[in-house]
Every structure is written in structure tokens, then in C-alpha cells.
Write a structure and sequence with these properties.
With 243 residues, the protein is α+β, with helices and mostly antiparallel strands. Helices cover 24% and strands 30% of the residues. The strands form 2 sheets. The chain has a 7-stranded mixed beta sheet, with helices on both faces.
């Protein structure tokens, strides 16, 4: 995986969207400063210049069906937890792919796929990891950084190299049914609030608040929740929110 650093860009995802046709290999574009970083649901991503690891990877899967795309999300999320584990942080994955240290968000992930027929022609994997930032000015409710957790300053270029290596290893696991099962099982073991306890949720379509336990996450990313009366509900991304 080639690693290219940009001093400033609107967003690394947007950069790759504009240039994907001219790039044939797997490349990580990391930025020291983003002026319009992207978050989930159209939100912006707060990142102080030169303090955090913000990057996007252009990845070309080999004969990979679009129906299996959640495996790329699982691989990316686990790669970030792998990198954090190298620095003593046990992190979990908040479905579908935010990364939490305890109950605080340390990383956000945004992935976009382009299709050719029923297969993914390329994926743009956007990742923002809070590293050395200690003051957050946005209204995000629960951010945390690696420095806040460890008390240490980190070299961003070294962390980018480590993360690229972790991502390379994890993306190799999306191929073959056995490796993909292993990847999925590890994802389930890292699931935030996946301990069988009951937690508050909101149905985004109806606005209903309810308590449920995570019952299952399917290989396609579908989350099934079990209510107190033992009935179940299944949701896709953006159809339900953690409270």
C-alpha cells in the first residue's frame, strides 16, 4: 500500500473521488490538515491540523461481490483496533464501524463503494483517528484521543504506517469463506455493547425509544435487537440509533 501525505486538502475521501480513475493501485492518502472532513450522516469531522490521523484508502477488491461489502467495513474497523492495541488501548466497534475506547469515540469510518455490475470495482475507505488533540470544540458528545488515554504524544507518520500494515492484513481476510468467518467472529467479539445487556435505542423512522440487547449482526451488517418481551427487530445502518 503506497502512502502519500498531503499538507492540506478539503477531505481525503473527496480527493480520491476526484482522482480514483487515474490510480490503479492501492494507495493511502493522509492529510496533515483537512478543511472539510466528512463524517457519517453528512456530518463534518473535527480534526485539529497536525494533531490527528486522517486518511483515505483507495482499494480495488479482486472479484468481490457487492453483497459482501460489509466485510470491508469489518476489516477496516478491526485494523484500527489492531493499531490501537499496539499502544495499549483496548477498543471496541460501535456498529457499524465507529471505534470506541470505553464509552468514548476515538475513530470514525466512512466507506464508499463503486460498482461494476454486481461486483465492487473500488472502495474509498475514509478514516479519522483522534491522536494528539486534547480539546474538541464541536458538539460531538464523547470524543477522546490517544493522547488523552495514554498521556503520550505520537508521531503521525509512524502511526499511519502501522495502520496501513494492519489494514493490509485485515483486508486479506475478506477473501475465502473461512477467513471471512474468522473476520466476522472477531468483529462480534469487539462489538461495543455486545455483552447481552439491554441498552436504549431509537427507531429513526418512527422516533420510538426502546430498550434492547444486540442479538446478532449478520455478515451483511444487519443488526438484530432483542427486546425485553423476547421479540426481535432487525435494522440496517441509519435505521436505528444508539442512545
Amino acid at each position: 500500500m503506497r502512502l502519500i501525505w498531503l499538507d492540506e486538502v478539503d477531505s481525503t475521501n473527496s480527493y480520491l473521488e476526484r482522482n480514483a480513475r487515474d490510480i490503479a493501485d492501492t494507495v493511502m492518502i493522509a492529510a496533515r490538515k483537512q478543511t472539510a472532513g466528512h463524517g457519517q450522516r453528512g456530518n463534518s469531522w473535527e480534526s485539529a491540523p497536525d494533531e490527528n490521523l486522517t486518511f483515505s484508502v483507495l482499494y480495488h477488491p479482486k472479484e468481490f461481490k457487492a453483497i459482501d461489502q460489509f466485510a470491508i467495513s469489518e476489516a477496516t474497523a478491526l485494523a484500527v483496533t489492531d493499531m490501537l492495541a499496539l499502544h495499549g488501548i483496548h477498543a471496541n466497534v460501535k456498529w457499524p464501524n465507529d471505534i470506541y475506547a470505553s464509552d468514548r469515540k476515538i475513530c470514525g469510518i466512512l466507506i464508499k463503494h463503486s460498482l461494476t455490475g454486481k461486483e465492487i470495482s473500488h472502495s474509498i475507505i475514509g478514516v479519522g483517528i483522534n491522536i494528539n488533540q486534547t480539546e474538541f470544540l464541536s458538539d460531538a458528545p464523547n470524543p477522546v484521543s490517544l493522547k488523552q488515554l495514554t498521556g503520550e504524544n505520537f508521531d503521525l507518520e509512524s502511526l499511519a504506517t502501522e495502520t496501513a500494515e494492519c489494514l493490509n492484513r485485515r483486508l486479506e481476510m475478506i477473501y475465502g469463506s473461512r477467513h471471512r468467518r474468522e473476520l466476522h467472529n472477531e468483529f462480534l467479539c469487539r462489538l461495543w455493547r455486545g455483552d447481552g445487556g439491554y441498552y436504549p435505542f431509537r427507531d429513526t423512522a418512527s422516533g420510538e425509544n426502546f430498550e434492547a440487547a444486540i442479538d446478532a449482526i449478520g455478515p451483511d451488517g444487519l443488526m438484530t435487537l432483542r427486546l425485553h418481551n423476547d421479540s426481535t427487530r432487525s435494522y440496517r445502518f441509519k435505521e436505528v440509533a444508539f442512545l
